[in-house]
Amino acid sequence: MGRAPCCDKANVKKGPWSPEEDKQLKEYMEKHGTGGNWIALPQKAGLRRCGKSCRLRWLNYLRPNIKHGDFSDEEDRIICSLFANIGSRWSIIAAQLPGRTDNDIKNYWNTKLKKRLMGQPTSHRKPHHQQQKKHQLQEQQQQQQQFFPSSFAVTAPFSSSAPDLEGIPISHLLNSLVAHPTHQSGNLIVFGGDHHSCSSSDGSSIQIGYGRDFNHGLYNGRENMGFESHLYGGLETEKLLLGGGGGGCEASSIGYSFGEVKPTIACPTDACHGLYLDGRSGAATDTSFRNIASAMYHC
DNA sequence: AAGCTACACAACCGCCCCCTG
DNA sequence: CCAGGGGGCGGTTGTGTAGCT
Known about the structure:
This protein is α/β, with parallel strands linked by helices. The protein has 3 domains: 10-62, Orthogonal Bundle (Arc Repressor Mutant, subunit A), CATH 1.10.10; 73-121 and 130-147, Arc Repressor Mutant, subunit A (Orthogonal Bundle); 170-298, no CATH class. It has helices at 19-32, 41-45, 51-62, 73-86, 90-95, 102-117, 130-147, 170-179, 258-266, 282-298, and strands spanning 188-191, 197-199, 205-208, 227-232, 235-240, 275-278. The strands form 2 sheets. The protein has a 4-stranded mixed beta sheet with strand order 2-3-1-6, covered by helices on one side. The chain has a two-stranded antiparallel ribbon with strand order 4-5. Strand 2 and strand 3 form a beta hairpin. Helix 8 (170-179) runs parallel beside helix 10 and helix 9 (258-266) crosses helix 10. The longest helix has 18 residues, at 130-147. The protein starts with 18 loop residues before the first helix and ends with a helix. It binds a DNA duplex through residues 3-4, 6, 14-17, 36-39, 50-53, 55-57, 60-61, 88-91, 102-104, 106-108, 110-112, 124-126, 128.
């Protein structure tokens, strides 16, 4: 038996809200509030709308202090950073941006940020002059640099058969791991590079930019290598500190050798579900990442 | 000027979580 | 403890608009 519908679909108006309906809902909300029941609200307010539709309209458009329009660079950065850490938990991300709604942020991400960070054209309309294309390309490169300033900029394809990873951009290592997953790669969680979440055909996966399912840590007894808990948008996540102590991946920290990293990659256990590598900052992280990528190729 | 296309954003759908009785 | 229902959320679709041909 299916669930009873929340409202009588046949007698409910759908589609865009008219100014009159907006006014009616706003006035009712200002006088009475939801009364703890959105489903009953439309009837009380004299609206021929589904309660959920009223809720959405209120939360996303009518309620006070809603910000619409241009997102600032700071907001962009916050969204990207949180998306990298917790994925598409729009409500959590919205909670960090006063005046912004989850729907707004979701739309903004889907229509602009995602394309921008994936290197797709961001212009409002198709350019039709070479000059514009050139300018657009430069703009994209600048924007990528702005968000991921270390070595994440994409340049050339990476051959999966090449064991020597020195000098190969991290983004290509990432891409290659996505394209050629190993049985170990299912245990690697990276954030900070491109924002992909990819699965291979056999079900193993590399999750990039998403760490919430990663719960357990390894502590190998060595100072500055272990797991550290972080709160991102109210969600606790943990990451393996390959980059050194304190703040995670510091520029001055060391890269771990294959021997040190391999047990973690090769032998996931209940106590060690995988790696969580902060790839956002600096050369030391690159070294760590290269070690892991190298380990995966050798395993 | 008309038709086409791409884009932005509002709104809907349906699933899941969690509270309550 | 369990079932039912409302609320919340993320994904998807629909619609209006602006630029291009």
